[in-house]
Amino acid sequence: MTNSEWWRTATIYQIYPKSFCDSGNKGTGDIQGIISKLDYLKKLGVDALWLTPIYQSPMIDNGYDIADYYSINPDFGTMADFDELLEEAKSRNIRIIMDIVVNHTSTEHHWFKSALGNKGSEYRDYYIWKDPVDGKAPTNWQSKFGGNAWALDEVTNQYYLHLFAKEQADLNWENSKVRKEVKDIISFWAEKGIDGFRLDVINLISKPNEFINDESGDGRRFYTDGPKAHQYLQEISEAVFQKYGSVTVGEMSSTTLDHCQKYSAQDGKELSMVFNFHHLKADYKNGEKWTKAPFDFLSLKSIFNHWQTGLNGKGWGALFWCNHDQPRVVSRLGNDEEYRELSAKMLASSVHMMQGTPYIYQGEEIGMTNPHYTSIDQYRDLESTNMFDIMVNQEKSVSESEMLDILDQKSRDNSRTPMQWNGNDNAGFTLGTPWLSIANNYQDVNAENAVNDKNSVFYFYQKIIQLRKEIEVITSGDYYDLMPEHKALFCYQRESSTHRLIAVHNFYANEESVSLDLKGEDVRYILANYGDVEFTQPQEGMILRPYECRVILIQK
Ligand code: TEU
């Protein structure tokens, strides 16, 4: 591992600026708010911050619809604020990673505004235009946010492709001018001293040569990990990432292990690491997101096994449960009432002891929960409101109350509620009216309480961040699932030439007994979520209490 590979032992913290901290009374977070919390983040011990998009944007998709890649959205502050953040973060040894969204732009981007309605525009070919087929959209592909993925330009009678909202037009990466623009954008931010980039849906950039109907799906098989995805990434990487030594994490939608081995190969020709989402589909009934289902524990473990063993020595993955698109893990896989703190810690340990780079999403470090909204009026996310409209009003496939149950489990707004800083009005997030309602539990679940309690989830995260830096086997060890068929315990081993590490997690509220043959070994506990576990020799027959986890280090 070289110095430039600092990220292999690092932990990255994701900030969703709109919901992090409002320095005034706008009801939305901003850059000065982030600056005011850097000491808190330093105390947690994270190495880098990933900021979701803060560029100029109409905010149809909260910044993932960029209208100008070179300027800061005034809702968040100014470029001077951003420069200050960079400097303040650097002075605390915290790096900054920017989100880059280049699969699509906002339809408010000047390229699109010029291209729309004008076949002669120099920017027309920056986007993907097709003639109607039989008077209708060119293909039956579905937008990820519901509905057909093509929108009509009435003036020219051609459709443009939008894999996400109709206000997010897909860029045409076949056009070398588009690739040049992307290199220029990324260079601009790298020149500013940014340490890295998170690349939004980057495995969707290469579209097929032919656009045809998908008779068996929503079209994703034609454009996911498309024909030139690797080639384009190599081109950008050589021109920018390698030149600046940037860390890069690609968000890979519906990808495969084979492709991810290539995207994150150790020769460094494409990206540093990948996010994949297969483990977060363990609670999708028949692979469908908009359903309500308990999670399939055995499949969850087998997915981790597939990725941990498959990337080992070949590529590198991000480790995470939460982000701004996913519900809160403590509500999703843990217990957000009686066992909130225990299950939040257990879940943290279960991914942080694996190989990869862990990501903590704001609020996860204090065990924030889903808000459990009861009315559609409380939701703001366009995906949630679109799906509600489609399923309840148009298709009538579910009742309103069924849909509210589904949203309570699946909506992206579950993670976007404002950060809970203290027990004051609006959880200390804003002096104004928050843009999205705060969860009712903020007087109990907040950062101030967590920092004042030595046994809190916060200090558990602080400890696991530290362990990764001290205990090499966490970074390098091979992964082996010791109990793939166990219905309640997730127990895996990591092994290097000098150490073994055994991490055992009870994912449920019943007690479970477990027998690990450790007789005669040089053994010590390095982590546990029940305070009474003695950090000495573990017993052979252990009882794991509800949501208990223990991590044992064995010197070989
Ligand atoms: O998300 C990509 C993506 O496909 C999902 O996580 C998506 O939200 C989900 O599958 C829908 O069911 C990225 C961003 O993280 C997300 O916030 C953006 O909305 C999206 O790209 C478009 O830029």
TrEMBL record:
One of its GO terms (cellular component) is cytoplasm. InterPro entries: GH (IPR017853), GH13_cat_dom (IPR006047), Glyco_hydro_b (IPR013780), O16G_dom_2 (IPR045857), Trehalose_TreC (IPR012769). The keyword Ligase does not apply. It holds the Pfam family Alpha-amylase. Keywords: Glycosidase, Hydrolase. Residues 14-416 form the Glycosyl hydrolase family 13 catalytic domain. It is an enzyme of class 3 (hydrolase). One of its GO terms (molecular function) is alpha,alpha-phosphotrehalase activity. Its EC number is 3.2.1.93. GO terms for biological process: trehalose catabolic process. The keyword Hydrolase applies. NCBIfam families: PRK10933.1 (NF008183), trehalose_treC (TIGR02403). Belongs to the glycosyl hydrolase 13 family. This is Alpha,alpha-phosphotrehalase. It comes from Aliivibrio sifiae.
